[in-house]
Design a protein that fits this description.
Layout lengths: L6 H46 L4 H44 L5 H16 L4 E5 L4 E5 L6 E3 L2 H11 L1 H9 L7
Antiparallel strand pairs: 1-2, 2-3
Length: 178
């Protein structure tokens, strides 16, 4: 990562690195879905062949049930993989933020975060910065107004508030629900 002190660039760099991993995991998910579907199709073909030899409608109903189960299983596995992709992306972001504390860019980033925290609390306020922990917090003298503007706190907010939007950006309209 460069010496740039822009948190937005940090998240952009993390997102860029996550792209390759996301594509790899998505390919795994698609392969697994195809594998499940192929297994179900083979079983259905077998049941249809048996049905063609004079077995009744129960076998066709069983084939349809098996196909439905296979599709549900494939969707469930795809959903789990999508959620894993999101969790992995946020874990990589946390790791990058942890690494950032040891870079020469850290003081400039903390200074910018401090200014943002102070502006959020208003004047007068006390600002606490801990480079070791990578934390920035501002508070009014009476403690009634506080702002924690640490990168990890910001990431947690993004993770909580925007998870569905991030999922749509990564997976299209399917999000993490399909």
């Amino acid at each position: 990562m460069g010496q740039e002190a822009d948190p937005g660039r940090l998240f952009s760099a993390i997102e860029e690195r996550a792209g390759e991993e996301r594509a790899r995991i998505a390919a795994e998910a698609e392969a697994r879905v195809r594998e499940i579907q192929a297994g179900a199709d083979a079983r259905i073909d077998l049941l249809k062949a048996e049905a063609g030899r004079g077995l009744d409608k129960e076998l066709l109903a069983e084939a349809q049930r098996l196909l439905g189960e296979a599709r549900m299983q494939a969707r469930g596995e795809a959903l789990q993989l999508k959620r894993r992709i999101l969790a992995d992306a946020f874990a990589r972001a946390r790791t990058e933020i942890e690494r950032l504390r040891a870079t020469p860019a850290c003081p400039a980033i903390l200074k910018k975060l401090s200014a943002e925290a102070a502006a959020a609390v208003g004047e007068p306020c006390a600002v606490e910065v801990d480079r070791e922990k990578g934390t920035v917090a501002a508070a009014s003298p009476d403690g009634m107004r506080r702002a924690d503007n640490s990168l990890l706190v910001r990431l947690r907010k993004v993770e909580t508030v925007y998870e569905s939007e991030i999922a749509r950006a990564l997976f299209g309209n399917q999000g993490t629900g399909g």
